[in-house]
Design brief:
With about 160 residues, the chain is mainly beta. It folds into two domains: about 80 residues, Thrombin, subunit H (Beta Barrel); about 70 residues, Thrombin, subunit H, CATH 2.40.10. It is about 0% helix and about 55% strand. The chain has no helices and 15 strands. The strands form four sheets. The chain has a four-stranded antiparallel sheet with strand order 1-2-3-4, with no helix packed on it. The termini are far apart. The relative contact order is 0.13.
Amino acid sequence: MGAYPRGIAVSKNGRFALVAIMGSNHLLRVDLRTYRTRQIAVGSGPRAVALSDDGRTAYVTLNAEGRVASVNLRTGAVARVSTGNAPRSLARSADGSALYVVNYESGSVSKLRARNMRVLQTINACQHPIGITYEPVTRRVWVACYGGAILVFSDR
């Protein structure tokens, strides 16, 4: 895999997985039938990865760049947007229309529109937000802070 594998996403059809290799500039695509791997260039320091429901797009935090990337897995085209210093974890909304990213060094959370990677909102969260998830029933975003707190934000 590489020295620093971090985020992993498995396609809904179970055919492949993507692994973010933090000390590199790429994801690894793993064929889950043969376990053969192929590199996908994304940018510096990929840390977390999520897939669109159709498995055609990967969303990747680029910790070293302070950006989040959208990668077309068919063409290899990459779009990047700045969110804050050291974006770490990310989560998708239930309908896939939004991404939520914690920016570790900036102490913030950013919400992006998935289809065009536009930053819709960035809010202060806590010192060193490290984890994030989206809860679809109440439409809440849960943020884990390195210091031990959990913050919960409404996305209504």
